[in-house]
Amino acid sequence: MATTQAPAPTRIALVSFPGVRAFDVSVITEVWGVDRTDRGVPPFDLHRAAADPAPIPLRGGLSLTPDRTLAWLARADLIVVPGLDDHLTPAPAPVLEALRRAHARCIPIAALCGGAFTLAQAGLLDGRRAVTHWNLTELLRTHHPEVTVVPDALFLHEDNIWTSAGTAAGIDLCLHLVRTTHGAEAAAAIARSMVTAPFRTGTQAQFIEHPTPHTDRDADTLASVRDFALTHLAEPHTVAGLAARAGMSARTFARHFQATTGTTPVRWLITQRIAAAQSLLERTDLPLPEVARHTGFGSEITMRQHFAAHLATSPRDYRLAFRHTQGPPMVDKARLHP
Length: 338
Hints:
single chain; 338 residues; alpha/beta; 7-stranded mixed sheet; 13 helices; 43% helix; 12% strand
């Protein structure tokens, strides 16, 4: 009887040098450094690459011990750069050169939070869009004026480089990279293990400090409406209908919804329907018209249009890529910032 050969682990390089944030190191390790193959997650091969093997002190009395040299970056399928405790910390010259070489080889590079400053030091963000923590956007603009800083995205991609906003947005980006390479179910399994959402909608505009335009009662009401929409996803929903359920006018509902989630009710609903369709395409053999009906798209044509607009692929091709497979090589299939 023929045996199925196990897929080769995806190789992840965690770039390490003095000054990197312990939180980001922990996020990267939690996503790619834990064996969850018994839960259907593909195998990962995570290594900590640094200029020398000496232990690297981290804030809080912790330390990080490298297990690979920077030369290992050339073998990686993905390189992840943690954020920094001091965002203007100069990265070692060998680190910057290794990142430049990796980018020239078309190896994807992702930076969490202030890791964008490291990529900017390497010149990799020159003339490109990037995002960082909302409280650091002016600092990044001031010290690296050649970078086009996007103020409100949770994460985005340009020219094989990903950047993300602060702290929790780093988790969002890591899970997104798993989702686009190994499917929604793999990302959801990791998210469940981490007790976090497999994805969040909206932008970091919802977290920027400003007077809140609504009361806690309104926020609870909106959460109840979102929960209703999710549990009745197959039904048609309108902004006016959801607003009526919240006891608000359509205009007030839309304004409060965007202030709470960072996105509009329509965009939020489309995102939820796409995610539900992805799961059904991976887990079931339902015909495409049935997938569209169960997820509220109504027709296969409408679902196909939204997949093309948001995932740059078709439902059929998505199923071929992720149904009963561990996923394709690292490619950018999703539009990261609507």
